[in-house]
Amino acid sequence: MSRAKWILLAAGVVVIAAAAIALSSGSPQPGLVGNRDVEKLRAEGARIVDVRTAAEFTGAHIEGAENVPLSDIAAVASSWDRSIPVVLYCAVGDWSDTAAEILTSMGFERVYDLGGGIVQWDGALAGGAGATVASADVETNGMPVMYEFYTDW
């Protein structure tokens, strides 16, 4: 085998090894994530951010989340450490997608968006009436019950 072929073969092995290490790290890639990924990221010290209004947040939110409404995300995030993972969520995923674009444009390295928002979250919730289980005559299929989608911003 010629020297060039050996170099190409060695480079291929390095690329494959790097990909295997990255995939085995257990940390999800930035972008859309699901419930299990959020728990992994939380264990790594990720900041969990609810970008809904304060009223929606008070009604129900993911335990341990902080509320930074979408309208304030750029101003508040300007003081955050950009190397710490940030998980964003809203009601159904639209506002958190916009927030993810804002943070990425600000230079945040690891930005995650909970696909489907809080309505698909199957973990623990905190907050007021929205965090409680609906009455027995309402079928929720284990989904959080949302009482308010109104916003005035």
Write up this protein.
The chain is an alpha/beta fold and 153 residues long. It has a domain of 104 residues: Oxidized Rhodanese, domain 1, CATH 3.40.250.10. It contains 5 helices and 7 strands; from the N terminus they run αβαβαββαβαββ. Strands 1-6-5-2-4 form a 5-stranded parallel sheet. Helix 5 links the parallel strand 5 and strand 6.
Q: Given this structure, which CATH class of the domain at 28-131 is correct?
A: Alpha Beta
Give the full name of the CATH homologous superfamily of the domain at 28-131. Rhodanese-like domain
How many H/I helical runs? 5
| Strand order of the biggest β-sheet | 1-6-5-2-4
Summarize model confidence as the mean pLDDT: 81
